[in-house]
Design brief:
The chain is an alpha/beta fold. It has 7 helices and 10 strands. It has helices at about 30-40, 55-60, 80-95, 115-125, 155-160, 170-175, 200-205, and strands spanning about 5-10, 25, 30, 45-50, 70-75, 100-105, 135-140, 145, 150-155, 180-185.
């Protein structure tokens, strides 16, 4: 099984006040933490969706990597997040890097620890060939909330590309397809922890 990673970092970060991808936690930017986390999880390539305003500084923050990075540009950073998801999937598909699917995350979610990532990937590997399964999602057991990264099977990625980005939301699509989405119980709170303000970043360190 081969799979890619997809990081969404093309938004404006208006609530945060600066570029979220560059928020530093424990001495490393969020975007670099996600690149390292997805690399260790076994991603064969990683797509990063950026916009023209933030692309150079995010590229610099990522730096050199041991995995191939595909830079995908979001023309309108004010567009809905689903548009960025489609851009990323299109970029990975056109570059023949999507493989069997992709691990998708917004950049402003805290990366899970290595043990949790291995659990997620092992579960994906063991269920990938089960016909009804189109996606998998970590579920924080204490609150029963679902989080990231979400694994999207390649066939499901193709379905997502056919939808209207102006009215589509991934969380709603996953909810509507719940019987075909595998919940993976985890105890790592990071999967549901978003960094929306600088105070969130400080409290997460």
């Amino acid at each position: 099984m081969k799979f890619s990673g997809l990081i969404l970092a093309g938004g404006l970060s208006s609530r945060y006040g600066s570029i979220k991808a560059l928020a530093e936690l424990n001495g490393k930017t969020l975007v670099r933490q996600w690149v390292d986390t997805l690399t260790l999880a076994g991603c064969s390539a990683i797509g990063i969706v950026v916009n023209k305003e933030n692309s150079e500084v995010i590229r610099a923050a990522v730096g050199d990597t041991s995995v191939q990075i595909l830079w995908v540009y979001q023309d309108d950073p004010e567009s809905a997040q689903f548009s960025s998801i489609q851009k990323g999937i299109e970029g990975l598909t056109d570059s023949k890097l999507l493989d069997d699917g992709t691990l998708l995350t917004p950049v402003d979610v805290l990366p899970p620890d290595q043990e949790t990532m291995h659990r997620l990937v092992d579960k994906v590997r063991s269920t990938l060939l089960e016909d009804p399964v189109i996606a998998s999602q970590p579920m924080f057991v204490r609150t029963q909330h679902r989080g990231h990264p979400v694994f999207l099977k390649v066939s499901f990625c193709r379905e997502l590309l056919t939808l209207d980005p102006d009215v589509s939301r991934l969380d709603e699509i996953l909810r509507q397809n719940r019987p075909r989405v595998l919940d993976i119980p985890v105890t790592d709170m990071n999967v549901v922890t978003n960094i929306n303000t600088p105070l969130d970043g400080l409290s997460a360190q």
